[in-house]
Each structure stands twice: as structure tokens, then as C-alpha cells.
Amino acid sequence: MNGYERAPLAIRLGIEPLGVGAWAWGTRRLWGYGSGYGLAEVTAALHESLAAGVRLVDTAEIYGNGESERIIGSVLREGGLPARPVLATKFAPYPYRLSPRSLLSALDGSLRRLGVESVDLYQIHWYSPIPPPDRLLDALAEAVKEGKARHVGVSNYGAEAMRRAFERLDARGVPLASNQVEYSLLHRTPETDGTLEACRELNVTLIAYSPLAQGLLTGKYGPGSRPPGLVRRLGRAFGERNLRRVQPVVGILREIGERHGKSPAQVALNWLLAQGTLPIPGAKDASQARQNAGALGWSLSPEEKERLDLATLGWR
């Protein structure tokens, strides 16, 4: 292994271990952007996140067909932000992108939309055998060498694919900084498929997307009360069975939260922080951004964490 720094990504980036996911920014059909919330609301969410110390903003070229990146870029050009956002975006490894140069070209497109010369974290969005993974990883390393990305990561990679990615990048003298996967109290697969263990072993930060199970853990939804947006309305997670089944878990989150002056969502995010991960909950407006930031600055007791562990084992 090369002698580069292997500190957690948040420490290397100088940020709190919490980010904001920007999938819903500009994504109309799936999340309902433009209906109930729009540019003013997500701009306020970004400002509020930064003011509260949440600096990592995670987007992707495919979110809203680039609209998420364009929104972030327009907010950056307007200026007046309370802090500099730490930008993370992703490359979509579609099979027709046969050349590793396609990754570097896609990165150039993301940089143009964001209006920056480099991003803090560039990730391969999902594992795909075509184009060849090793060649894409070599292109990731080249992005670092060219100064277009400070750090690189992968997303939706299983444990073994992540280990191979780590070794390939390591041979090029570039650390694998992160693996972004779905992880929450209600989706604990990273604990059982070896991904979390491999991240800890290799000092790769696990970035947890959908950390509130797309809203199930907020306590806002229940039987007969489903959320808007195709992603959640059509997903099995929001079937009536799960909406009933999650209520005891939300009850425990409320009970623990009352002891700390926190909401169920803040407790659920704090559980992920205790796991050593970096959650990236979404925020459609300033209120949601403030709620997310409330997960920072306090800790669950070992007994509270264990209670949540046991209460959600059946959701693995």
C-alpha cells in the first residue's frame, strides 16, 4: 500500500461527517421538483446547510439530466454563501461509454455545469462490467493527476468490487476515498454483505445515501399517508405493510429523541454517525436542512444505539 493519508474522508476534506444529497434538486418526475418546491427552496436548503456546518453537497450528472449540477452552479455564481461547499458528483458508466476517456469528458461536463475547475470528490455511480472497470478506475486516477478531482470514490459497489477498485487505484498511488451505498436503520445490507466491514478495514468512508429510508424514519408517514414523488410512491418501501411495520421503530426514535431534544430523523442520522459513516440526507428546503444538521453535536448512548440495533434487525 502506498504511503498516502488514510484518514476518514471528512477529516481529509475538513468537514463534518454529514452531507446533503441533491438528487431531488431539479429532478421533476421522480421527486416532483417544480411542484411544491423549486429553485428558491433548494437554494435556501443549500444556504441553510452551509450555515449549519454541513458542507458536503452530493450530486450526479444524471440527476435531473444535469439540472442538479446546473442549480448548484447557479447558486455558486450568485455568491453570498456562508461557507464554501465541498462538491461531490458522479459519472454514469453507461455501456455505450466504451472509452475510459468518456469518464474524463463527463467530468469536464460536470465541471462546466457546476462552474468550477475541480470537484472535491468524483465517483463512479454504479458497478458495470462494460466499460471495463479497471480502465475506468485508471481514468479516475488520471482525474486526480490532472487536478480535476481532489479525491475519488465509487458508489453501489459490493465488498469485493470495492476491494478490487481499492487495489487498482492504490497501484496508481491514488487512495479510494469512499463507497456510497444505501444504508439506514431500515436497510442494513452493508452490515451483512461485507461492505461496511471492508470499508472499515481499508479506511474507505461509507457514504450512506437514503439514510432516512426515503422519509420512512422521519415519522411523517404512516398507513394511509404516503409521500409525494414517484420514487417513494412506487417503491415497495412505502407499501401499507411497511408503513404499519415501521411505526414501532419510529416510536423508539421519538422516545430516544425526547431525551435529547431531537426529532426521529435526527436520531436515525445520529445512529449512522455512530456507525462511522457519512450520511447524505436530502433537503428540499431550509427547514429540512436545519433538521438534518441537528444530527450533529451530540451522541446516542451505547444503550440507545443497541436498542435501535435490535429493533431493526428484521429490516436487514
UniProtKB/TrEMBL annotation:
This is NADP-dependent oxidoreductase domain-containing protein. PROSITE patterns: ALDOKETO_REDUCTASE_2 (PS00062). Keywords: Oxidoreductase. Residues 17-309 form the NADP-dependent oxidoreductase domain. One of its GO terms (molecular function) is oxidoreductase activity. Gene3D superfamilies: NADP-dependent oxidoreductase domain. It comes from Rubrobacter xylanophilus. It comes from the Bacteria. InterPro entries: AKR (IPR020471), AKR_Detox_Biosynth (IPR050523), Aldo/ket_reductase_CS (IPR018170), NAD(P)_OxRdtase_dom_sf (IPR036812), NADP_OxRdtase_dom (IPR023210). It holds the Pfam family Aldo_ket_red.
